[in-house]
Amino acid sequence: MAALISTEAPRSSRGGRPRDPSRDGVIRAAILRLLADVGYNALTMDAVAAEAGVGKATIYRRWRTKSDLVVDTIAEMNRAETSTPDTGSLEGDLRGLLRSLVHVVNGPLGAATMSLLSTLPHQPALADAFRNGPLGQWTEAFREVWGRAEARGEVREGLVGSTVADAASALVVQRWLLTGEPLDEAYADSIVDTVVLPLVRERCSN
Predict the structure, then answer these.
(1) Series of mean pLDDT values for 10-residue runs along the chain (206 residues)
(2) CATH code of the domain made up of 85-205
């Protein structure tokens, strides 16, 4: 379905030309393209500047290092993509959240994240920041959906963080990373209809 040495905010400008926030989106989009094309190890600040069409000083006014740049970009763009629906039902919330996850992993953010996966085992700090950033954001979104369902009395207490709850996103991630089979909204809906809701009904009936 979500990818990094530091999660601190980019540093502010140290004098000179003021930072132009309108360039952030252009720079981040360039970073995602480069991550997908060349991977983390081959990514350079010079390449980001060239791809974004900005001066290298513009990059360094925002990020100290390559890892800061990647952490902030993946986390910020994932945050923008991660919206927790509140439809009033577990079924509606899960359907909306899984569709959103499918959209993310099939897009530029998913391609960039995919390129980072082989790097994470060799960069413990990067992996830790990824878990606390993008992965943590999606985990919290799913926990919020299940927590609201418990609060409404739709499901029994104890499902937040359970294997039943984890099954939804795990199936998306499995298809995305391993099987290569089509991953679309129809598949997201089938997870809700044929896996998660039947498990919830069985769990609540016992």
Answers:
(1) 35 45 83 92 93 93 87 78 86 96 90 88 81 85 94 91 92 92 96 95 81
(2) 1.10.357.10
Q: Which two tokens stand for residue 83?
A: 């919206």
Return the percent helix, strand and coil in the chain, to nearest 5: 70, 0, 30
DSSP category for residue 15: S
CA-nearest of 66, 82, 54, 70 to 145 is 82
Tell me the one-letter amino acid at 141.
A
Distance separating alpha carbons of residues 41 and 128, to the nearest angstrom: 17
Residue at token pair 């601190």:
8
**What are the structure tokens assigned to 137, written together?**
């954001």
What is the reported pTM? 0.79
Query: Which letter does DSSP use for residue 19 in this model?
Result: P
Count other C-beta atoms under 10 Å from residue 60's C-beta. Answer: 16
Q: How far is C-alpha 157 from the geometric centre of its chain's CA atoms?
A: 27
Residue type, 61: R
- Which residue shows structure tokens 């390449």? 47
